[in-house]
Amino acid sequence: MRRAGIYILAAGLMTMTAGPVMAQTAAKTAQVSAADKTFASEAAIGGMTEVALGQLAVQKDSSADVKQFGQQMVTDHTQANQELMALAKQHGMVLPTTIDAKHQAMVEKMKGLNGAAFDSAYVKEMVQDHEKDVAAFQKQASSGTDPALKAFAQKYLPILQKHKDMVKALSAKA
Question: How many Å from the N-terminal Cα to the C-terminal Cα in the chain?
Answer without folding.
Answer: 79
